[in-house]
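Design request, tokens follow.
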């Protein structure tokens, strides 16, 4: 009876563990379905026989009581489910990071106007922070928000908030950006062009 209880507990734990392992499995047809079924089968059947065997070995020289069976089952369930839950958490974090990388920046009171880079653009440090030095590059098709334009300095620079943070773009590269007025901060007066210093 105790072995049967271990086996049923293993089957249930395997079913729960397989759900965690397969939560983010891709849907890609026959090959993926075979892989999903294989993981489900191995996890549940492995739990079924594994719990029965380990439970038997753990209790064979003891007086078997309900408390002993429950304690062994609890320990085996933790040993099986903790790695599954850890794997689930890791995959969930990966999906969150990927989703965050795809999400564009959002306008705010300091960065009102949305643009998109039509080609790769070299970013620089701001002239207010010492000598201008190359910083990270802005990849093509990345959205950036325009902040202040430093029109009284040479070279003229525009402060931009992109996916990886604030970067400064020299005037020679302003026209590499295309305005997206529909994604400006609501209520913002749209820019007419990327000639940010035209009126100054």
């Amino acid at each position: 009876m105790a072995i049967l209880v271990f086996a049923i507990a293993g089957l249930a734990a395997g079913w729960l563990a397989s759900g965690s392992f397969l939560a983010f499995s891709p849907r890609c047809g026959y090959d993926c379905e075979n892989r999903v079924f294989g993981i489900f089968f191995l996890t549940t059947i492995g739990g079924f026989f594994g719990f029965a065997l380990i439970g038997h070995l753990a209790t064979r020289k003891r007086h078997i009581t309900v408390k002993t069976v429950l304690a062994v089952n609890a320990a085996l369930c933790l040993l099986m489910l903790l790695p599954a839950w850890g794997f689930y958490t890791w995959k969930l974090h990966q999906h969150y990071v990927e989703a965050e990388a795809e999400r564009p920046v959002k306008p705010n009171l300091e960065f009102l106007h949305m643009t998109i880079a039509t080609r790769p653009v070299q970013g620089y440090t701001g002239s207010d922070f010492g000598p201008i030095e190359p910083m990270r590059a802005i990849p093509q098709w990345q959205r950036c928000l325009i902040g202040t334009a430093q029109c009284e300095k040479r070279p003229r620079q525009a402060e931009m908030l992109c996916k990886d943070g604030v970067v400064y773009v020299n005037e020679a590269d302003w026209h590499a950006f295309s305005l997206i007025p529909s994604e400006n901060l609501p209520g913002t007066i749209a820019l007419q062009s990327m000639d940010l210093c035209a009126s100054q």
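Comment from the thread starter after seeing the answer: thanks! Strands lie at 113-117, 121-124, 134-138, 143-150, 157-162, 165-170, 177-179.
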